[in-house]
Amino acid sequence: MARFILFVLLLLLFYVILYYLIKDMAVRRKKWSRASEPEELVQDPYCQTYIPKRTAVKKRIEGRQYYFCNKDCLRKFLEEKNP
Ligand SMILES: [Zn+2]
Asked: Which of 1, 25, 29, 56 is deepest in the core (most CB within 10 A)?
């Protein structure tokens, strides 16, 4: 009998964990889609890749704002500009 109660408790615990996981995932998905809606794309002047402005590496050079996909592109772009 004790084993049966333990089994039911485990099942209940499993159900509760699953319920919260699904709830959390739904909330996170909603947040993510809301955040990505006004996504503005910018072009990396070095590798010509389009990247979301939010995640781009920003750098102001000679009064102009540049966006790079990563720090490597920024470094290479600067090296090409000023060898
Ligand atoms: Zn790049």
From this structure: 56
Tens digits of pLDDT across the chain (83 residues)? 788 999 999 999 999 999 999 998 888 887 766 655 668 999 999 999 999 999 999 999 999 999 999 999 999 999 998 77
Tell me, in angstroms, the distance from the centre of ligand 1 to residue 76's CA.
9
Which residue segment(s) compose the domain that 24 sits in? 1-37
User: pTM value?
Assistant: 0.53
In terms of domains, do 46 and 77 share one? Answer: yes
What's the gap in Å between 33 CA and the centre of ligand 1?
25
CA distance 64 to 16: 53
